Amino acid sequence: MLTITAIPAFNDNYIWCLANTDSGKALIVDPGQADPVRAHLRQHNLTLDTILVTHHHPDHVGGVNALVSDVPGCRITGPATSPFKGVTEPVHPGDEVVWDAITFQVLGVPGHTLDHIAYFSESKVDGHPVLFCGDTLFVCGCGRLFEGTPAQMRQSLDTLRKLPDDAKVYCAHEYTLANLTFARHWLPDDDNLREFEEKCRTLRDNGKATVPSILEDEKRLNPFLRWDDPAVIAAAREYGADTGLPSNSEDDVFAAVRHGKDHF
């Protein structure tokens, strides 16, 4: 049986473990720290054989070298254009990555960083297609633009928005409540956001994660995926009246939302 489990790291990172519980093989996504991964593998009697990297930031690759020292020959798949030099299997958008019975499509999603990729599989785990999206898409949020432009990021998010509604979104951070605080500020009359915030606060109050999310919910709730939603457009225009930012195109609307979050 295939399972996906979150391994908490640092203050708010999630490292993802995709495991075949029958064979004991494990694939790890974005191991920013080695020790939490080692502990998880020991606890569940798993053997690491593959690491997927979405982008080069240290909180996503900081544990790779230590894990590889434990498992010489471990496959390290990551973006061919990455400044991170530990990748042994460089991939480009459009490539496929096969692990166990799962085939991942490599998606180019620049914006947060220029080398950022995501891994999507139509093969279902826990009844859902799988999306490992790193820091591109969060629950009701998206990654800051450290290297790319708003237009690049909106196009990357549009790539993800076109995936199947029932895909599970395995993002890399527990940023949900902060994202929802901003989303509620941006769209104060959105009752769906209010109800979702209440649900997520209850989860966090009980020590539970708010991820993964379902892509259909992100399309419905996440202001960073709603650049063509009249309510988000209206909010962008109001924000633009105060800041001088344009709101004439979908890229403009997205840029206004991102600017609003950055200065919130």
TrEMBL record:
<dbReference type="Pfam" id="PF16123">
    <property type="entry name" value="HAGH_C"/>
</dbReference>
<keyword id="KW-0862">Zinc</keyword>
<dbReference type="InterPro" id="IPR001279">
    <property type="entry name" value="Metallo-B-lactamas"/>
</dbReference>
<feature type="binding site">
    <location>
        <position position="173"/>
    </location>
    <ligand>
        <name>Zn(2+) 2</name>
    </ligand>
</feature>
<feature type="binding site">
    <location>
        <position position="55"/>
    </location>
    <ligand>
        <name>Zn(2+) 1</name>
    </ligand>
</feature>
<dbReference type="InterPro" id="IPR032282">
    <property type="entry name" value="HAGH_C"/>
</dbReference>
<keyword id="KW-0479">Metal-binding</keyword>
<dbReference type="InterPro" id="IPR017782">
    <property type="entry name" value="Hydroxyacylglutathione_Hdrlase"/>
</dbReference>
<feature type="binding site">
    <location>
        <position position="135"/>
    </location>
    <ligand>
        <name>Zn(2+) 1</name>
    </ligand>
</feature>
<comment type="pathway">
    <text>Secondary metabolite metabolism; methylglyoxal degradation; (R)-lactate from methylglyoxal: step 2/2.</text>
</comment>
<comment type="similarity">
    <text>Belongs to the metallo-beta-lactamase superfamily. Glyoxalase II family.</text>
</comment>
<feature type="binding site">
    <location>
        <position position="57"/>
    </location>
    <ligand>
        <name>Zn(2+) 1</name>
    </ligand>
</feature>
<comment type="subunit">
    <text>Monomer.</text>
</comment>
<keyword id="KW-0378">Hydrolase</keyword>
<dbReference type="GO" id="GO:0046872">
    <property type="term" value="F:metal ion binding"/>
</dbReference>
<comment type="function">
    <text>Thiolesterase that catalyzes the hydrolysis of S-D-lactoyl-glutathione to form glutathione and D-lactic acid.</text>
</comment>
<feature type="binding site">
    <location>
        <position position="59"/>
    </location>
    <ligand>
        <name>Zn(2+) 2</name>
    </ligand>
</feature>
<dbReference type="GO" id="GO:0004416">
    <property type="term" value="F:hydroxyacylglutathione hydrolase activity"/>
</dbReference>
<feature type="domain" description="Metallo-beta-lactamase">
    <location>
        <begin position="12"/>
        <end position="173"/>
    </location>
</feature>
<dbReference type="Pfam" id="PF00753">
    <property type="entry name" value="Lactamase_B"/>
</dbReference>
<protein>
    <recommendedName>
        <fullName>Hydroxyacylglutathione hydrolase</fullName>
        <ecNumber>3.1.2.6</ecNumber>
    </recommendedName>
</protein>
<dbReference type="InterPro" id="IPR035680">
    <property type="entry name" value="Clx_II_MBL"/>
</dbReference>
<feature type="binding site">
    <location>
        <position position="112"/>
    </location>
    <ligand>
        <name>Zn(2+) 1</name>
    </ligand>
</feature>
<dbReference type="InterPro" id="IPR036866">
    <property type="entry name" value="RibonucZ/Hydroxyglut_hydro"/>
</dbReference>
<dbReference type="GO" id="GO:0019243">
    <property type="term" value="P:methylglyoxal catabolic process to D-lactate via S-lactoyl-glutathione"/>
</dbReference>
<feature type="binding site">
    <location>
        <position position="135"/>
    </location>
    <ligand>
        <name>Zn(2+) 2</name>
    </ligand>
</feature>
<dbReference type="InterPro" id="IPR050110">
    <property type="entry name" value="Glyoxalase_II_hydrolase"/>
</dbReference>
<feature type="binding site">
    <location>
        <position position="60"/>
    </location>
    <ligand>
        <name>Zn(2+) 2</name>
    </ligand>
</feature>
